[in-house]
Amino acid sequence: MSEDLKKIASDGQEKMSQEQQIKIIEVRKLMGTLSDKESVYCSDASISRYLKSQNWNVKKASQMLKQSLKWRQEYKPEEIRWDEVSNEAETGKIYRPNYCDKHGRPVLIMRTNRQKSKTLKDEIKHFVYCMENAILNLPPHQEQVIWLVDFHGFNLSNVSFKMTREVSHILQKYYPQRLGLAIMYDAPGIFQPFFAMVKVLLEQESYNKVKFVYSNDQNTTKIMEGLFDMDQLEPAFGGTDDTEFDINKYAKRMREEDNKMQSLWTKANPLSLVTQNVPSDSIELETDSNASNNKKLLSSSIPNPDKYILVNRQEKNAVALE
């Protein structure tokens, strides 16, 4: 696997330095009082993702997080249920298979030739549902999702610039740092002019996560072999599993996971403080006046500034919904 892919694959939940922990506390102070549901969303890992997306700028990250909370309050993505999007999903144009990549990241498969949406509103709702479901199934050590985009049978009528623009906006503004990789498999030449227009919508980090893989190019197929067990992938992605998408089985699984989603949010309790040793490899804080103020902030925010971590007492998986 190339070095850049190794870096992308490692972007799960990593140990934070003391300086980064201080910035998280600064964001919390700017956020003010949160509801129980907002507290579940605003875990340390979640705030860290917003800070990363804004180059650890506390003010910008706080503003971005507030906008996300406002969107979630209005759009209520965690309340979307399978039966609301089943008509959009029945062709198998976007679905989550029962496997992850070698790093434990859930996968969303997208079939470009199975487009049947009648309205942009319904298409966006289905996309958001799929993202929420993938995040629900994140393991404790991962925060990101892999997209596998199948271009077999593609033609230009399958893509909408307006839809792509909306998806790019939602992904980058409300799901920062959630995309691990977007693998474009066997994209034809006629897609390239469209992608050239799409590039202007993507932040540099998002653009860097788009990888084109071609079945007749051994250099790119190594990406798939490095990321996946090939006996789990279907032939459309160079794998050997010929199990076909079954909408009835998938619907049953999604309804079961809807119950899991509902239980997670309705039982959500405020996050509370418990103690845990800060990693010994924490970086040194700066010695200027700002660093001094940060130390005071850290001391005033928690009883023991050298030992803390935020957890949810009731639901171990709550962190997956940051």
Automatic annotation (TrEMBL):
Domain CRAL-TRIO: 82-245
CDD domains attached to this UniProt entry: SEC14 (cd00170)
Domain of life, per lineage: Eukaryota
GO MF terms, alphabetically ordered: phosphatidylinositol transfer activity
InterPro entries: CRAL-TRIO_dom, CRAL-TRIO_dom_sf, CRAL/TRIO_N_dom_sf, PI_Transfer_CRAL-TRIO
PANTHER family documented for this protein: CRAL-TRIO LIPID BINDING DOMAIN, CRAL_TRIO DOMAIN-CONTAINING PROTEIN-RELATED, GH16843P
Annotated protein name in UniProt: CRAL-TRIO domain-containing protein
